Amino acid sequence: MKPWMARARQWLLGAMSIVAFLVVWEVLVRVLHVRPVTLPPPTAILGELAGEWRWYLDHTCYTLLTTLGGFLLSVVVGVALAMLLVGSRWFEHAVYPLIVALNSVPKVAIAPLFVIWLGTGSEPKIAIAFLIAVFAVIVDAVHGLRSVPQDVLDLGTVLKGSTLDFFFKVRLPCALPSILTGMKVAISLSLVGAIVGEFVASQRGLGYVILSAQGTFDTARVFAAVFMLALLGIGLYGALAWAERRATPWRRID
Length: 254
Prior knowledge:
- The chain is an all-alpha fold.
- The chain folds into two domains: 1-35; 52-247, MetI-like (MetI-like fold).
- 83% of the residues lie in helices and 0% in strands.
- It is built from ten helices and no strands.
- α3 (53-87) packs antiparallel against α4 (89-104), α5 crosses α8 and α8 (163-200) packs antiparallel against α10.
- The model has no long low-confidence stretch (mean pLDDT 87).
């Protein structure tokens, strides 16, 4: 079976399972007479989305932009820090414990500080998304940079290339699969960070929609925003999975 056919089959099976889940949800809600304020049926949620799709699209685009901002920042800073951690033993001993300590702090606890420092615009959401996602990039990038086969390292020594050339032409390409794996984790964490930032202080975004709908007990609107978040997360992850297949064609990625 061709690779594209196998992937199409996987996507089809996934879509069928989602449809089956929604059908069971709809039937159980109606048979058991569950109140809409407790658990609305999927048809009510889809009706909510269809009735105000432009409004939901605007908030989704805002969340997407803050997510991508935090993600791109985490990739640039994460890979740069990983290169320094691998290239300098002194830098690793001095900085890595600080990175681990910062990652151990619950981001929700320090999110209000970003609002105080950066205001109530998109900047604090990007900062929180970055802070949540960057550790995943650092860990996987460091692992990849240190996983270069020994025979490749020996070849570089024999050829007597400069340290900088060897790093960028050999070590970094060998680490690319691990870096891309970290990026796939980071994109999901960036979305979480953007929503956390919108919970703390925002007038736009899907996090704001969820928080405002909670205050009015509009459960259908909450589920509609969650549905858009799910679509956004699947789309971002799928885009990175596609990029991974294109960037590393020598690997078999199911």
